[in-house]
UniProtKB/TrEMBL annotation:
<dbReference type="GO" id="GO:0016020">
    <property type="term" value="C:membrane"/>
</dbReference>
<keyword id="KW-0472">Membrane</keyword>
<keyword id="KW-0732">Signal</keyword>
<dbReference type="InterPro" id="IPR012556">
    <property type="entry name" value="Entericidin"/>
</dbReference>
<keyword id="KW-0564">Palmitate</keyword>
<keyword id="KW-0449">Lipoprotein</keyword>
<dbReference type="Pfam" id="PF08085">
    <property type="entry name" value="Entericidin"/>
</dbReference>
<dbReference type="GO" id="GO:0009636">
    <property type="term" value="P:response to toxic substance"/>
</dbReference>
<keyword id="KW-1003">Cell membrane</keyword>
<comment type="similarity">
    <text>Belongs to the EcnA/EcnB lipoprotein family.</text>
</comment>
<feature type="signal peptide">
    <location>
        <begin position="1"/>
        <end position="29"/>
    </location>
</feature>
<protein>
    <recommendedName>
        <fullName>Entericidin</fullName>
    </recommendedName>
</protein>
Length: 51
């Protein structure tokens, strides 16, 4: 059915794909934190400058 080389190639592609997805999740989480901090700063500024 599958040769050892074919199985190894599929396994390496799966690991590489998983690494990319995990890296993307970490980057997305970091971006979410940055956006949240920006929103908090805008809210704080609006509260300080509201009469």
């Amino acid at each position: 059915m599958f040769t050892k080389t074919t199985f190894l190639a599929f396994a390496l592609m799966a690991l590489f794909g998983a690494a990319l997805l995990l890296g993307a999740c970490h980057a997305t989480a970091g971006a979410g934190e940055d956006i949240s901090k920006t929103g908090d700063a805008i809210t704080k500024s609006a509260d300080e400058h509201t009469p």
